[in-house]
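Suppose a colleague, Dr. K., hands you the sequence of a protein chain of 180 amino acids and asks what its three-dimensional shape might be. Before reaching for any lab equipment, you can write down a predicted structure in token form. Begin with the sequence itself:
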Amino acid sequence: MPGSATDSDGAVGYRGVTACHAVGISYRQLDYWARTALVVPSVRDASGSGTQRLYSFRDLVVLKVVKRLLDAGVSLQNIRKAIEALRSRGVGDLAGITLISDGTTVYECRSPEEVVDLLQGGQGVFGIAIGGAFKEIQGSLSHLPAEPVGGVADPEPEVAGDGDLVGDELAARRARRRAG
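The predicted structure, expressed as tokens, is then:
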């Protein structure tokens, strides 16, 4: 595999240049994030002049998440807090979560019913899907009776000569005109 290497433990790693291309960031960003411990390469960190950092696939995923959060307008300070909250949960949980951001904070969507604000120490939040509520109400109303708006029951609907329902006086006139 081009751009990859193997350390003494047999783990596969990706050099910084490869990581940058895969994630879509500059080498300068990658270097800064590594030096400030935002995303530290887990295969091999730089240990002096001439050594290469090696990033794991998981590291590249975290780098991509950081980039997307930056693109969404989240501050680097808030991204650091979110990444730390994710790190504290362990490696296995990353694949099963979805991050949501409004550009200010970062939320973790654990399931359709559970969303957690990563920047507020795990504060639970909720969302309402308007489309889902719309469909739910439509379904509920489909078998329930409706009341007339004026409080008086509508007379039997008038049917035009072609079988169409006539809804108002103007429509009734048009229907009569068409019928002859």
